[in-house]
Amino acid sequence: MSDVPQWFKSSHSDDEGANCVEAAVDRGESTPIGIRIRDSKVSSGPEIVLSAPAWSAFIGAVQPGA
Questions:
Q1: Are the beta carbons of 62 and 50 closer than 8 angstroms?
Q2: Considering the domain boundaries, does residue 43 fall inside one?
Q3: Alpha-carbon distance 19 to 13, whole Å?
Q4: Which of 11, 22, 23, 39 is an S-S bond match for 7, by CB 3.0 to 4.6 Å?
Q5: How far is CA 13 from CA 9, 17, 40, 52, in A?
């Protein structure tokens, strides 16, 4: 397993440089243990790191109808 995060861009990000968000999953042996979030325009910049339960709570709160 590689220690280098495999980043993926949000499906809501565009290629014109606005509102670009990337995420990477930190995996344990078989399940995610955390999520990293960063601005794709500043890949060497700061990251927000959330635990898997915190990420699930965030997604549940921002989904339409939540």
A1: no
A2: yes
A3: 6
A4: 22
A5: 7, 8, 9, 22
Q: Is residue 38 part of a domain?
A: yes
State both tokens at 38. 């960063």
Within 10 angstroms of residue 32's Cβ, the number of other Cβ atoms is 13
Domain hosting residue 45, numbered range:
18-62
In angstroms, the CA 30 to CA 9 distance is 23
Identify the helix (H) or strand (E) that includes residue 34.
strand 32-39
Tens-level pLDDT at each residue, the chain (66 residues): 456 788 888 776 666 666 688 899 888 777 778 899 998 888 888 999 999 899 889 889 988 775
Count, residues in the chain: 66
